[in-house]
Amino acid sequence: MKTRTAAPYLLTGIIVSLSLIAGPVRAQSDEETARPTGWDEYSHGNSTDPDYAVVFPQDEVNTITITLSPENWQAMLDNMTELYGEFGTRASGEGRQPMGEGPAADQLPPEGFVPPAMGERPEDAAPGQFAPGGQPPQGFAPPAMGERPGGMGAGGMPGMETTENPIWVAADVTFEGQTWTNVGIRFKGNSSLMSTWGGGNWKLPFKLDFDEFEDDYPEIKNQRFYGFKQLSFSSNWSDSSLLREKVTADIFREAGVPAAQTAFYAVYVDYGEGPLYFGLYTAVEIVEDTVIQTQFADDSGNVYKPEGAGATFAAGTFNEESFDKETNAKANDYSDILALFEALHATTRTTDAAAWRSGLEAIFDVDGFLRWLAVNSVVQNWDTYGQMAHNYYLYTDPFTGLITWIPWDNNMALMAGMGGGMGDGAGAGGRRDGSGRELALGLDRVGSDWPLIRYLMDDPVYHALYDHYVEETINGAFEPARMTAIYQTLHDLIAPYVVGENGEQPGYTTLSSAEAFETALATLITHVNQRYTAAQQYLESRAAAQ
């Protein structure tokens, strides 16, 4: 709250006289604006380096309480209704159909759902029958109980697609006895947000921005949360283990791929009825906030969040709308992205491979991309480049001059049996292309519509380097014994916050049952062992062919 310093009448008269000549005078400077009660520069100010030990602990679950006025909470709900329809209803081709009040059981297909290949139906399967071994496809929107699935639109709610983000409102955030006031909060997400809202589930993904409202509340100017301006909170939608978002990001970083830090948070929300447990979330570091600050030598470059046709990098698809600029947006300069398009599609690719590689490596961190591609293919992550034209960032590092690949949104990783796009060998839980054929770790069936994969895999030098990183992945970051221990440790860590008397409750969870949580752990352990075997077989076949 602003304070005003009393001044002698003479001085006041001088100020008033000057204001008539020079215009309005600020009542006080930023330095004179009183900070909120309890403000501490280390925890609240912007001069602190990001404290990862506090915000992203690896061996404990943090707890936060978000307090909103009833009016702000209602504004958020009204806005969601405008964007996606009434809470607890799901859109269909014939209009929205009620889903009932209990989303936990019907929000998602049972653990182990395996969709058929595009255009096919499972053999000997009745409508609604599910088989073990997989997860729902991108945008899956189950019908109301007793109904058959209709068409599925982007994001999983046909007829409800929108490119508009939900609104920001102000809230207070309490953590370990300290409070951050007037923090911006909004719901966020695509499939996860729309499907959860439509299913009548309050475990909605959201985002916090600690100085979003500094213009309205000058006392919080440059407010931070232990050095972090923004944090994203994933609801772990469609993930009965609640581990995939966190573990996949950790695997990427362990393998040398830049990726956000993550941690588990028990989230309580108070909108006038006392703190309600909204469930266990995964907090995710924001790329343009602190990832580029802490994982790169220079954080002043362009950050892009690609999505849409241009994000495939197919020839002739560049458009500015596909490359949303998260930094330096006012410059309206896309010369770095255009240079990558030009280098990737240069005619030297088929006439002088060495020259083509040299030109590409002058603008793009090819080595980093191949590391990502190898890890991504080994762990099986189908909701990203090669399958979907989204869920990655690009950062042009001024220190190196190279565009670097940064993965994002990993809740659909560590999964087998998905339809379409990239995948692994037959018999190893592989994903399929549109014809139902299994795809090898060699990515031989990825087409030129995903040129960053196809062109690099067609080059013997790059393909050999990719193979090297596949081997490095299964013997390092994704080695089965290592991953089994990690899965078990994290499962035990979060279990009290997920199941049992103090765990997630109906209406505030996407779990179908407590048993699904336990089964998911076994599924992850089985998966890493299958992937190790599949990668070994792939590498042996490559060696035999050379």
Short description:
The protein is α+β, with helices and mostly antiparallel strands and 546 residues long. It contains 16 helices and 13 strands.
Write the layout of secondary structure elements.
Layout lengths: L8 H14 L18 H4 L7 H4 L6 E6 L2 H15 L4 E2 L6 E2 L4 H4 L62 E7 L2 E10 L3 H8 L7 E4 L20 E5 L9 H11 L7 E9 L5 E10 L1 H9 L7 E4 L16 E3 L9 H10 L3 H4 L1 H9 L4 H14 L12 E6 L4 E6 L43 H8 L1 H16 L4 H19 L15 H32 L1
Parallel strand pairs: 1-8
Antiparallel strand pairs: 1-4, 2-3, 4-5, 5-6, 6-7, 7-9, 8-9, 10-11, 10-12, 12-13
Helix pairs in contact: 12-14, 14-16, 15-16
Provide a descriptive summary of the structure in words.
There is one protein chain. The protein has 16 helices and 13 strands. It has 546 residues and is of the alpha+beta class. The strands form three sheets. The chain has a seven-stranded mixed beta barrel, surrounded by four helices. Strands 11-10-12-13 form a four-stranded antiparallel β-sheet, with helices on both faces. The termini are far apart.
List keywords for this structure.
single chain; 546 residues; alpha+beta; 7-stranded mixed beta barrel; 4-stranded antiparallel sheet; 16 helices; disordered N terminus
Q: H/E order of the elements?
A: HHHEHEEHEEHEEHEEHEEHHHHEEHHHH
Beta-strand percent range: 5-15%
What summary fits the major beta sheet?
7 strands, mixed, barrel
For the termini, the CA-CA separation is 72 Å
> Helix segment count?
16
Q: Kindly report the spatial arrangement of strands forming the biggest sheet.
A: 1-4-5-6-7-9-8
Q: Mean pLDDT score, rounded?
A: 82
| Poorly predicted parts | 1-30, 91-160, 418-439
| Helix amount | 25-40%
Globally, the shape reads globular
Please tally the β strands and state the result.
13
Q: What Rg do the Cα atoms give?
A: 25 Å
Strand-pairing-aware structural class: alpha+beta
